[in-house]
Amino acid sequence: MSVASDLDLTAKYVYVPSHARFLAVLVYLPILDKIVEGEYVKIKEPLKIPGCKPVGPKELMEMMLDRSDQQYKECVRVGLEIPMSNGVLVNTWEELQGNTLDALREDRELSRVMKVPVYPIGPIGRTKRLVEKPNRIFEWLDKQRERSVMYVCLGSGGTLSFEQAKELAWGLELSGKRFVWVLRKPASYLGVSSSDDKQVSTSLPEGFLDRTRDVGLVVTQWAPQVEILSHGSIGGFLSHCGWSSVLESLTKGVPIVVWLASLCGAAGPALHQFL
Question: Tens digit of pLDDT for each residue in 242-266?
């Protein structure tokens, strides 16, 4: 808001690329900050936020895990500033999150905090585009049966520990199902490029790539997710459930398998609506 004021903008609108529940939590956070004592993770009763299901310690957004952290303080500040705008554009739609949108507009407690109009303008995401040929991902997918492949991707920044990567690899192998796995470097390799094939492959069980050669494809480079989800051979999506991934999967009609560790992220409160 301060930047908009410095530029003398007559109308100030906020765009929230995430979902309506994230917006509800964000604008209600300054109230929680005043009425809740101690850390949210230690509360005995779930937090009640208008328009949202009660939020227990395990469903808290990451930004709420440590009240002394600068990220939390910034979120409280943003929650205070959003209602100072002329309106809010949010990346969702009525049929998906109607209850929360109604609460933002009409709930006596939440609308008094929100104060300004909320406009759902979603789903907004990257559109499908032509992929340069040849591309080994699509060459492989073209050979698979319809709806037979599980797409596994835990986000552009989603890295696993060595133990998690190995366990997920064993799970995929023992399932006997076909898969495309976009695998980032293990989280302990903080200084190594995520596209370093050698470092990524060391996080897999010995012989995994050879044993799964006929049923799986491991990708260590960036992958065109929208195009992959649009492919007819994809039957499911194991996802960290960032909001962009959720929207892309929903709009392509691909069922989501939730990576449970993701539920404390920004999409968490929205996902609990559907789980």
Answer: 899 999 999 999 999 988 765 545 5
In sequence order, what are the beta bridge partners of 55? Answer: 47
Q: Please name the helix (run of DSSP H) or strand (run of DSSP E) that holds residue 104, with its range, or none.
A: helix 94-106
Which H or E run includes 162?
Answer: helix 162-175
Burial of 142 (0-12, 13-18, 19+ CB in 10 A): exposed
Topology of the domain comprising 136-271: Rossmann fold (3.40.50)
CB contact at 8 A, 30 and 56:
no
Write down the pTM of the prediction: 0.82
What pLDDT, on the 0 to 100 scale, is given for residue 188? 46
Q: What is the DSSP letter of 45?
A: S
CATH of the domain spanning 2-120, picked from 3.40.30.10, 3.40.50.300, 3.40.50.2020, 3.40.50.2000: 3.40.50.2000
Give the start-to-end residue ranges of the domains of the chain: 2-120, 136-271
Percent of residues in the chain assigned helix, strand, coil, to nearest 5: 45, 15, 45
- Cα angle value 219/223/226 (rounded, 5°): 135
* Contact predicate 63/75, CB 8 Å: yes
One-letter amino acid of 21: R
